[in-house]
Specification:
By secondary structure, this protein is α+β, with helices and mostly antiparallel strands. The protein has one domain. It has a five-stranded antiparallel sheet, covered by helices on one side.
Length: 87
């Protein structure tokens, strides 16, 4: 099942490491990178990446800023791990 959110709702979440320009079904959407996330006030950070097809959840009880910084550090590692390579 695919999900094609409508961008341009007027809702923006600019404090995140990603450019969340849309909002739908309780998730912030970064259409440029294809990320869907719902960062929490205490640092928890669920993220869905439809292509290449993975999801991650950072469970932490800290601040929102620490959750964002942690996801910034982890996301490139996840991207490299889950992106298929050709031999």
């Amino acid at each position: 099942m695919g999900y094609a959110p409508t961008v341009g709702t007027g809702l923006n979440f600019t404090g995140a490491p990603y450019d969340y320009r849309g909002y739908g079904l309780g998730w912030w959407i970064d259409p440029a990178r294809g990320l869907i996330a719902d960062p929490g006030a205490y640092g928890a950070y669920p993220i869905l990446v439809p292509a290449p097809g993975y999801a991650a959840f950072i469970a932490i009880e800290e601040t929102e800023d620490i959750g964002h910084r942690l996801m910034q550090a982890v996301e490139p590692v996840l991207e490299a791990f889950f992106t298929p390579t050709t031999p």
